[in-house]
Hints:
CATH superfamily of the largest domain: Mur-like, catalytic domain
Number of domains: 3
Strand order of the largest sheet: 7-8-6-9-10-11-12-13-14
Amino acid sequence: MPQFAPADLARWSGGAWRCAPTAPLTGASINTRTLAVGEVFFALPGVRADGHEFVMDAFARGAAGAVVRAEFAAAHPQLPLLAVADPAVALRDIAAGYRATLPATFVAITGSVGKTTVKEMTADLLATVGATARTQGNFNNDLGLPLSLLAVEPDAKFGVFELGMNHPGELAPLCKLLRPSISIVTMVGPVHFEFFDSVQAIAEEKAAVLRCLPKDGLAILDADGDWFELLHAAAPCRLVTTALMAAADYVARVDAAVPDAFVVNERATGEQAVLQNSLPGAHNVRNALLAVAVARAQSATWEDMRRALAAFQPVGLRWQRSEWRGAAIINDAYNASPPSMAAALKTFAETPVAGQRWLVLGGMRELGTAAEDLHNALGHAAAELPGVRLITVGELGAWIAAGAFEAGMGAEKIVICDHCDAAAAVLREQLSAGDAVLLKASRSEKLERVLQDLKAALPVV
């Protein structure tokens, strides 16, 4: 972890130390449960509690200092407390101050789906060229990005950061903090309809990561994307394109005879390379191609990228395969939206299965007034898959079931469950060796509990 000088933290935040720290300051934390010895604790206000209630616990767990409101610091003059007007603002200001000292090339990644996968792939490929920092987990908001920046080592050559949003106007402040020189926009689609009135409005918000680029920066876009022209127009710098269908700087061709590989053609050099992809589906070829474009711009070799992609492991709950009584379980329950559901269903349909295919689907959140129609449409898509049985979970899942029945799926192939334990009970009773199960829903649905209930009955291997 990087070390911070107390004077720098005070200067960047505009605060003052009531008592000087005696131990090295080696990182930042907003959660005493995960705080490491030597970190600075930021006492942020929360929905359920105020971080100032946990300052003493932070010191008991090894914090080297804490950033607190001025009145709290005045009441505890014996502690190494940095007094500021607002600890949340101070967190961002300190991160901005530290970011200004870092010489690394920073990459910003946003989009409706695929952000975390592209972030991880890009970071893995850039790591073949030099030391690479990346977003911690999915810390991609106004708290997570500062924390991730404050974890970047001073000698990092690259930093790859995911920027998320679900309200208008959220991306511009994150871009101002990160100051990227390279930006990627993944697929843009109908998500966050609870807060946006159209997909175009979402695309315009995502374009913030392009508008913030310097004139000598680099924009990476999928030329096949529905909003390519809008996004291209937002970039004030050089553009590099990727595609599976359109003409582009990097074009990938998928050969059905080689399911775990794709061929890339690089227009600038005329070179062609065969790369492996540890994740199935054309959408993951698109994800990998965006990462390849960034890495090639930083002089990564084809051989190094081939090895990195072949070894790539996704972040938890993303297409994680396991077995239960000889049945394949694909746990893709980290999150879901209409575009990611469509991609997952297509990939699942293309996955070889000896027995029955089972879809266990839950709700997609933040879809606003379009929620029922979009869940019904997902049910229609599920009904079009041959040889599939459908289990839905929760109130939103029932809309999926209704759509499937409306589209012609027989009632005997549909099971509507209120909770995950009921879905697990159905699978426990009916799942056979050779079958395959896909679990997918929004994060708040916690659909992985279905798998946890199965594990409780018999270990997954």
